[in-house]
Amino acid sequence: MHLARYPRRFLAHLPTPLERLDRLTKELNGPEIWIKRDDCTGLSTGGNKTRKLEFLMAEAELQGADMVMTQGATQSNHARQTAAFAAKLGMDCHLLLEDRTGSNNANYNNGGNVLLDHMHGATTEKRPGGGDMNAEMEKVADKFRADGRNVYTIPGGGSNPTGALGYVNCAFEMLAQFNDRALKVDHIVHATGSAGTQAGLITGLKAMNAQIPLLGIGVRAPKAKQEENVYNLACATAEKLGCAGVVKREDVVANTDYVGEGYGIPTESGIEAIHMFAELEAILLDPVYSAKGAAGFIDLIRKGHFKKGERVVFLHTGGSVALFGYDSAFDFSGRWKK
C-alpha cells in the first residue's frame, strides 16, 4: 500500500477539510453528519477527479505525452478538471463531450464546465448520446497520433486502476483525520458514477481494515451494473497495489433509487438537496452527481437507515460549477422548506 511507488503530480489541495454539519444534522434529526470536502481540491473549482488526475497525468508525463484526451457528458466535471490539469502541465487537451440529455439550453451547452473547458485552452468535439465513448475517443486519438502527436487517453471519469489510486489515498487521508480527531465513523456515503471513486475508497478502506461500511448512491447505471463495475475496478486496483482479494463482492454496495429519469437530468429530490446544503451549510452541490448522492443520503436518514447516535460522513465529490449550466432547473419562487 506504499503509494509513493507510483508516479504522481502533487497539484491537489490536500488534505481536504472534514467538517461537521451542525445545521443539517439538526434539520434532519438523525445521525451526526460530517462532510469530506473534495469540492476543495483546487484546480478550476476542484472536485474528485483531481485526485485521480494526480496519478493519471503523472503517468502521461512519464510516457512523454504532449496531448491528453478524455471524454464525458456535456457538463463533465472530469473533462473540466482534465483541461485544467493539462493547462498547468503545458499539455494540449482535447475533449469529446457526449450529449446525454438532449438539452437545447444555451447555458447547458456553452456555460458552466464547457465555458471553463475552453478557458483552459482545451478543444472540444460533441457526440450524440448512447455510443461507446471510450472507443470513439481512441479513434480520434489515432488521428492525432497519425499526425505525430503523443496522445495519452483517459477513460471517462478517470476511472481505471491508475486513477482509482487517488481514492485509495483519500481513504488513507480520511482515516487519518478520523483518528486524529478521535471520530468513530459508522458510515461513509458518496455519489457513484464511473466507479473510480467508490472502487478506490473501498480498496483503501478494506486494505486498512477500517471496518467502515461504504455506500455509493448511483447517478447513472442500474444497481447490479453499478456494483459490478465498482467491484471489477476495485479488484483490478487491489491487484495493482499488491493486495489482490482484499475486496469481497459484498463490500461493494450501491443504491440506485435516486437516478431519476437518467444521467444528468435533475430530480426534485436533488434540487431539494441543493437548496438544503446551500441554505443550511453554505455548501454548493451539483445537479448531476453530488445532489443525487445527497438526495439519497437525506432520504435514507428520513427513513431511519442512518440513526441517531451514529456518525456519518458524506463525501462531497464537487462539481458546483455545473450549476451555471443548469440554471433553468431552479425556481426560487418556492423553497424546499415550504
UniProtKB/TrEMBL annotation:
Enzyme nomenclature, EC number: 4.4.1.25
Active site residues per record: 76
Top EC class for this record: lyase
Cofactor: pyridoxal 5'-phosphate
GO molecular function: D-cysteine desulfhydrase activity; L-cysteate sulfo-lyase activity
InterPro entries from the UniProt entry: ACCD_DCysDesulf (IPR027278), D-Cys_desShydrase (IPR005966), TrpB-like_PALP (IPR001926), TrpB-like_PALP_sf (IPR036052)
Residue ranges constituting the Tryptophan synthase beta chain-like PALP domain according to the UniProt record: 12-318
Annotated positions of the N6-(pyridoxal phosphate)lysine modification: 49
Keyword Lyase in record: yes
PANTHER family: 1-AMINOCYCLOPROPANE-1-CARBOXYLATE DEAMINASE-RELATED (PTHR43780)
Matches recorded under NCBIfam families: ACC_deam_rel (TIGR01275), PRK03910.1-4 (NF003031)
Family from the record: Belongs to the ACC deaminase/D-cysteine desulfhydrase family.
Protein name: L-cysteate sulfo-lyase
Organism, as annotated: Roseovarius mucosus
